[in-house]
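Changelog-adjacent note: as of this version, every example in the card shows the full chain rather than a window. The one below runs 223 residues end to end.
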Amino acid sequence: MTPRTFSFDADAVAQLHDRYNQHTDWPNVVALDPTNPGAWAPDFLAAMLDNHRCNARLWCEEDLARRQRAPDAEIVANKRAIDAFNQARNNAIERMDEFLLLTLGLVDPASVTQPQAVSRAPAGARLNSETVGSMVDRVSILSLKIKAMAEQTQRSDVDDHHRADATAKLARLNEQRQDLCDCMRQLIADCQTGSSYFKVYRQFKMYNDPNYNLALVRERNAG
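Full-length structure tokens:
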């Protein structure tokens, strides 16, 4: 297979996540970063930012849902928001994978949005169980962990031991993210040469579907 020309900078993914994390209105306001150099295709960039925004909103809602003194109604609202953001997060992962597989020529274009997309991987290529979109999602989550852990290293209401512990954890988180970016870069390179491929994996989240969530079905049937 002739290597495909495709520009994908794994480190730039992490940098973009970090840049958005620093926005004072993020994640409540959705806007494309005007300082973005235009290295990303618009469709992929939109899906990547949708995914990152959902992860950021999930982070906030998960914290709120763990409050011990909040009214029950507020916790219920947090839980429902978590379900909605998680659904949207997974939808964005699938959109990233669809775009990448189309760009790499590894999927039949007519089937790419179908529940069972038809792979066009070359014979002998190794199937990678994790998709690039899911790796981008993990990089997004790690960026949120890195931001939160960095804040722990700067707290004035804790002792030196807490800050030192947070500093060590921050270094490990940065290492983990760099490892992940390196693996993502290698997977893209292997897909370009035809030695590896991945598929779009549909999550089929049933808890939000009134026709598949049996608790919702029983509630509806009960009137």
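Structural remarks: Helices lie at 10-21, 42-65, 72-104, 132-152, 160-193, 214-221.
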